[in-house]
Amino acid sequence: MEHITLLLAIVIVTALVFDFTNGFHDTANAMATTISTGAMKPKAAVAMSAVLNLVGAFLSVEVAKTISKGLVREEGIQPEVILAALVGAILWNLLTWLIGLPSSSSHALMGGLLGATIASIGVSGVNGGVVVTKVLIPAVAAPLVAGIAAFLAARLTYKLGKNVGEKSGAKGYKAGQIASAGLVSLAHGTNDAQKTMGIITLALVAGGVLAPGSNPPVWVIVSAGMAIALGTYLGGWRIIRTMGKGLTDLQPQQGFAAQTSAAAVILASSNLGFSLSTTHSCSGAVMGSGLGRKGGVVRWSTATRMFVAWGLTLPAAGLVAAAAEFVARQGDWGIAAVAVFLVASCAAIWFISRRQVVDHNNVNETDGPAADAGTPADTEPAGVVTTAIAAVTPPPAGSAAAEEAAEEAAEAVEPDAATAVTSDVKPSIPAQSGAAADSARPAGANV
């Protein structure tokens, strides 16, 4: 590490900042369903996820190899390119977090790296075959495979548990959810933490500190694991809300099916070196499990916004990275300008997010002042249907409750409406005279 220059140090710190944003951006992948079904308390859930993310970072380096020596050609890559790639990835992570949309941190990083590389040395610097086989194909296949697996798993769990009492079944599946959430967190560490390891290793190769083809040093593995664990512990509550409540309403059986299916897909891809998106896998599993319950639904308006974000991730991060690379290559002032722009943009996004705070106290709310832009537009505010039904269901005729209910209903529409109701009502049948009333009264009736 004694040969690391100031520029290389800036790149490494920026990479760890990206790793941190990756942690809180992707906490929802492991813990959203566990929190939404009440299987774990929010703070306990993110703490467990953080620890297992750290452990997972030490289990494999296959994905790191794909990033550091597979996606782009190491020859000709300068540290400025890596810095620009990280700027594009970090800003995309923060923007999608601000609006509560689950997007891929992995694709943001890869899009930034591709955009900055093309801007620096041209298309020849990109390994097209690796991009197609280990990035684009998994991006499409992962949510489909995870969704189908979760759909079948949810159907199977309901079929096997149809004779089990509701309370005992829910308790058992909540325990299963905790175990499967831990597995997803472990899988996330084996996949996403390695992406930062790979990008730091690539920067070290570009800076001449490591020889081309080197594996990540131990200190890189430790620092990347710590950064993603810290980000995970802080929790991306906005995205947790969208993933847990915005896509569908999950029961413990569905949460267990979704997390188990997603974990299987992520672990298999990590073993094969596929740099897939854990967000894509977990989101697909949540939607599949939502459809796996009879009567279950998926809020497609929220899903559509999420799909659009997925499609924009690679090009958006790539364009920002390309612009940052153009400025950074101008020299020391360009690098300083890019760094200042990144810090200022991050600060601005954070201050905007403080207008509507989402944290562990209100993460399961879907309406009210705490709701943010990630709240699904088609979610009906709680209590509207119940209030409407109560308003049109009359109490027994002639009771005092009937009169009180009429006055309260009128006041709910307009404060002065209660007096208007009583003053404007006129009898539809004219009052009878005294003689006519006496003749109409049944014989023997008391006055």
pLDDT averaged residue by residue: 76
What level of helicity do the residues show?
over 70%
- SSE sequence, one letter per element: HHHHHHHHHHHHHHHHHH
Instruction: Please tell me how large the radius of gyration is.
Output: 29 Å
For the largest beta-sheet, the strand count, sense and barrel status come to: none
Taken from the alpha-carbon principal axes, the silhouette is globular
Quaternary status of these chains?
single chain
Number of strands: 0
In DSSP terms (H or I, runs of 4 or more residues), the helix count works out at 18
Amino-to-carboxy terminus distance: 107 Å
Portion in beta strands: under 5%
* Count of separate structural domains: 2
Low-confidence stretches: 367-402, 409-429, 432-447
Structural class: mainly alpha
Question: What this model shows, in words?
Answer:
The protein is mainly alpha-helical. It has two domains: 6-353, no CATH class; 384-426, no CATH class. The chain contains 18 helices and no strands. The protein has helices at 6-25, 27-36, 42-56, 62-69, 79-98, 105-121, 128-160, 166-206, 218-234, 237-246, 252-272, 278-292, 300-328, 332-353, 384-392, 400-413, 417-424, 434-440.
List keywords for this structure.
Phos_transporter, phosphate transport, mainly alpha, disordered C terminus, transmembrane helix, single chain, 447 residues
What is the topology?
Elements lengths: L5 H20 L1 H10 L5 H15 L5 H8 L9 H20 L6 H17 L6 H33 L5 H41 L11 H17 L2 H10 L5 H21 L5 H15 L7 H29 L3 H22 L30 H9 L7 H14 L3 H8 L9 H7 L7
Helix pairs in contact: 1-5, 1-8, 1-9, 2-3, 2-8, 2-10, 2-11, 2-12, 3-8, 3-9, 4-8, 5-6, 5-13, 5-14, 6-13, 7-11, 7-12, 8-9, 8-11, 11-12, 13-14, 16-17
